[in-house]
Write a structure and sequence with these properties.
By secondary structure, the chain is of the alpha/beta class. The chain has twelve helices and 15 strands. Helix 6 (about 125-140) packs antiparallel against helix 7 (about 145-150), helix 9 (about 230-245) runs antiparallel to helix 10 and helix 10 packs across helix 12 (about 305-325). The N and C termini lie far apart (about 45 Å).
């Protein structure tokens, strides 16, 4: 991987496979592989008294388990894991929560909504999940040949996670859990996930941002089959405003992908501007009635595999739904279950 030019990357080398790098007092950076185009996730080991708190767990795979075993023999050094904390329910974050909790006896912590989402999706079966997924992509105007490949992902979550822990220590916005004798304030971010847990340590000027704030890419903000009329982009833009108002600009941002970086407020402003541009593009594309699939092809012009196409359609719908909620677009929904069409008002 080429060297990253950001200031934090210049100070801190990438963690070795199966190892960790200190990035702040009591905070260690771990990097795990992912089987996608986005090929890694950052996890965080927080010194916690005589033991550890683990923030995020990685994807449910033999490769990730093997790397965790190396960490248990290495940097974790036989000290107990007191808590496994997940920022949100996505499988690269919660995938091995059950396995780690079962192995260590640790407490499992996240927000209630993220836990419920993970539990529900991990228990979903194909006979329950596939029909509404097919209906969702039909409403989006996806070609029949593509819909079947997209619907395969309806039950993919179950295989991507070890069993989600049955017992939860609930984290709420504004909570201040003590980790290593330091208060970390829970800051809930929305849009990418429904109730994502970010952690701000003011004394250490550190923000564990999960996927809420990434340096090089925009966090995916999507509409999904289980909530087709949602406005996650509205939630995301509200969260950007709240983070700008409540988190100082001088924090070191610890993201789930990429490298640690600084410049929070400029990055949040850039994300807001990115979505404003996307909204303008969507509205301009709907100068006459178009399906979400047609608008997706206008927004994402390169070839996409089915995994990437799911996110592209979901993100397009997030922008279209936001415009509908604001009254800038009209959505015509036919009674026969065919494709919705969107047109500018």
């Amino acid at each position: 991987m080429p060297a990253d030019p950001s200031p934090a990357a210049a100070r801190v080398a990438l963690p070795p496979e199966g190892g960790a790098v200190a990035v702040a007092p009591g905070v260690h950076w771990v990097r795990m592989p992912l089987p996608f185009a986005l090929d890694h996730i950052n996890l965080w080991l927080l010194e916690d008294g005589d033991g550890w708190t683990i923030a995020d767990t990685g994807y449910n795979s033999e490769a990730t388990r093997a790397l965790w075993l190396r960490l248990f023999d290495g940097v974790l050094a036989g000290r107990p894991v007191h808590r496994v904390l997940c920022t949100h329910f996505h499988p690269d974050h919660m995938g091995l929560a059950g396995w780690l909790v079962g192995r260590t006896g640790a407490t499992f912590a996240t927000s209630l909504t993220e836990w419920l989402y993970g539990r529900a999706l991990s228990l979903d079966t194909s006979e329950l999940a596939v029909p509404p997924t097919l209906s969702f992509y039909r409403r989006a105007g996806a070609p029949e040949a593509v819909m079947e490949r997209l619907a395969v992902w309806a039950t993919a979550y179950r295989a991507s996670v070890s069993p989600i822990p049955a017992v939860l220590h609930r984290l709420r916005d504004g909570d201040r859990p003590m980790i290593g004798g330091v208060p970390w304030r829970v800051v809930v971010g929305r849009g990418h996930a429904p109730e994502q847990v970010c952690l701000h340590a003011a004394d250490r000027r550190v923000l564990i941002a999960g996927d809420q704030v990434l340096e090089r890419i925009s966090p995916n903000v999507s509409v999904w089959p289980n909530e087709p009329d949602a406005d996650p982009l509205g939630d995301f833009l509200d969260s950007i405003a709240a983070l700008t108002a409540t988190i100082p600009d001088d924090v070191l941002i610890l993201p789930s992908h990429g490298v640690p970086f600084t410049g929070l407020h400029a990055r949040l402003a850039a994300l807001a501007a990115h979505h404003a541009e996307r909204l303008n593009t969507c509205r301009a594309a709907c100068d006459r009635p178009h399906t979400a699939w047609e608008v997706t092809r206008a927004l994402f012009t390169r070839d996409l595999d089915p995994h990437q196409m799911r996110f592209a359609v979901g993100e397009t719908l997030a922008h279209l739904n936001h415009l509908v909620h604001r009254g800038a677009l009209h959505r015509h929904r036919p009674d026969d279950g065919g494709a919705d069409r969107y047109v500018a008002r």
